Amino acid sequence: MKVSEVEVLTRGSVQTLTNFVDGQWVPSNASETLAVRNPATGEIVARVPMSTPEEVDLAVRAAHRAYRTWQHVPPLERARYLFTLRDLLVAHVDDLARLVTIEHGKTLADSRGSVQRAIENVEVATGIPSLMMGYGLTNGAGRDIDEEAVRRPLGVFAGIAPFNFPMMVPFWFLPYAIATGNTFILKPSEQVPMSQAFVFGLIEQLEMPPGVVSLINGGPDVVNALIDHPLVRGISFVGSTPVAKAVYARSAAHGKRVQAAGGAKNVMVVMPDALIDKVIPNVINAAFGSAGQRCLAGSVLMPVGPAHEPVRDALLENMKHIRMGNGLNPDVTMGPVISPAAKARILQAIEQGVADGATLLAGGSEARIDDHPNGNFVEPTLLDDVTPEMSLAGQEIFGPVLSIMPVETLDDAIRYIDSNTFGNAASIFTQSGAAAREFQTRLDVGNIGINIGVAAPMAYFPFGGARESFFGTLHGQGRDAFDFFTDRQVVIRRWFEESREHAGKHW
Ligand code: NAD
Description:
- This protein has a seven-stranded mixed beta sheet with strand order 14-15-16-13-12-18-19, with helices on both faces. The chain has a six-stranded mixed beta sheet with strand order 9-8-7-10-11-21, with helices on both faces. Strands 5-6-22 form a three-stranded antiparallel beta sheet, with no helix packed on it.
- It has helices at about 5-10, 55-70, 75-90, 95-105, 110-125, 130, 175-180, 195-205, 220-230, 240-255, 275-290, 310-320, 340-355, 390-395, 410-420, 435-440, 480-485, 500; strands at about 20, 25, 35, 45-50, 135-140, 145-150, 155-160, 185, 215, 230-240, 255-260, 265-270, 300-305, 360, 380-385, 400-405, 420-425, 425-430, 445-450, 465, 470, 485-495.
- It is built from 18 helices and 22 strands.
- It starts with 5 loop residues before the first helix and ends in a 5-residue tail after the last helix.
- It is an alpha/beta fold and about 500 residues long.
- It has two domains: about 5-260 and about 470-490, 3-Layer(aba) Sandwich (Aldehyde Dehydrogenase, Chain A, domain 1), CATH 3.40.605; about 265-450, Aldehyde Dehydrogenase, Chain A, domain 2 (3-Layer(aba) Sandwich), CATH 3.40.309.10.
- Bound molecules: nicotinamide-adenine-dinucleotide (NAD).
- Nicotinamide-adenine-dinucleotide binds near residues 187, 219, 223, 295 and 424.
């Protein structure tokens, strides 16, 4: 998609998105296209082709050809492309945020934040000349034998993204992959492919060598073709746990590097000494921001002992201020969920929770928004008296639903969190350093918040995740990304005394 086309697109003209392969926009010859719908209005805003394995093959071959020369482009020159990309992204923050809201439904403020984090990842990757340095030791392998480890790229990488962060997640990988001298193919989520189409319109303006970055639209068939392709060296995946697990296993079976981030069930613990007025806005944002469709969303609230009643009452009072609607409206604080299927799944989870014995305190139904009868709106929902055996406690709901599970002690909370299969994030609200330290050091969880509801790592830190929330070793973003996209080559070097004779004793 060319940048100039975004205006047309956002006015409702429906076009079928194209792929960007070998430096060109190429229409897919897929027989199947899916409708991309604005989840707030139900309108079709684009169609996305389900590209074929043959099209994946062409993209991979082009990326592999590009790799032959791109790997030798000096790191500083590679970084300069990223400086220009950064400036183009900054110049188009508003266009991109608008597109994210149209395709995903989150508020403009949330969308802008996600574009900002994408930009920050580009900024971090521009440090490549320093960050890609290896290390060496004179006489490291013996007298007159030097040893060094250099970092080198590996080849073609592919990134596969989920629907919930159309702009941000691809940038956990893309800038690092190309900065380190690899070439990269992105497959966005077929539910939200528009903002990346716009990004590739900006990438086109960089005039990078063709094939360094490519965009291929599609679904599981594209994912599997990328994993199975012998010229693809590594896979970066973010999505639900069952798919992450399958992608991890399939990639490993082909001997590939793989990082696969999965789903989440994040818990927020409120200690009796927590400052309630500071806790509540954090909890509301964590549970209902982006309609609960963040992998760092707070899904279970565990008040400890006497914290239960005051937290519950303050939450109920403050939830009244959540304003549902179209995220393009600046007064709206919570948008729709992604699809009618997601809405049905979330309502079913609430119904099951109530059947299991949870107490419904607020919400629980689909919401009718006057101007948007076809939007996928679910009321912000609060349930109490949830117990560890209930499905509400263990399943990822990925909607605006917060379950209160009261516990007696911090120990109980830690035991529950560690018994959960997911290990993406957990937060504690307390004034006690000792309690916070106990929480942090005992939990097998990737991202910990202390008096922070959504502990989202900055671009220069890895985006954590443990147990069923992450399969692999190296995470997205930051130093982990530089490690994932490079290999260490060790060189042991010596020069014989005789070489002096050969040089004619000129030194
Ligand atoms: P999803 O697993 O349905 O899809 C993710 C990607 O995988 C998409 O590009 C999709 O086309 C592809 N895909 C779907 N089914 C596939 C299959 N059978 N084989 C191969 N590829 C397949 O996830 P989603 O619904 O788009 O995203 C929401 C999920 O992502 C949630 O579970 C959320 O917690 C998770 N998530 C995790 C993180 C993290 O950092 N851990 C970040 C964001 C989202």
